[in-house]
Every structure is written in C-alpha cells, then in structure tokens.
Design a protein that fits this description.
single chain, 25% helix, alpha+beta, 65 residues
Length: 65
C-alpha cells in the first residue's frame, strides 16, 4: 500500500460502506489477525463496515445492538 499524506483531498477519497456477505470471511480473518479480541461472531443485530482508500481496506468497524 502506498504512503499518503493526510490532506483533505486524501481523506475525501476514504469511503465507508457495509461489508458485503461475500467479504465476511475476509473481515473475520482481518479481525483475528489484528484485533486484540480476535474475530468475534455477530451477536444479535450487528452490522460490519469497512473503510477503503483506493480499494485498500484501511479500517473496520462493528456495531452491535
């Protein structure tokens, strides 16, 4: 992944969207690898999001009821 300076232009290229069903395994693998709690299953009403920059995943977010 290329390095970038955090300017308004760079940040405007970041997009946040829900994780698609076909991407859930990737989401879980990344959580297992990088999060101190590992990959947690969806509990109750849960939505997973991913932030992308130039099609690279740069952040993940999980919101549960």
């Amino acid at each position: 992944m290329e390095s970038a300076e955090f300017t308004n232009e760079t940040l405007s290229q970041v997009q946040v969207r829900p994780v698609e069903r076909s991407e859930e395994a990737r989401y879980q693998e990344q959580m297992e690898r990088h999060h101190y709690l590992g990959a947690l299953p969806k509990i109750g009403e849960t939505v997973w999001y991913v932030a992308t920059w130039h099609e690279h995943w740069v952040a993940q977010l999980s919101i549960s009821a």
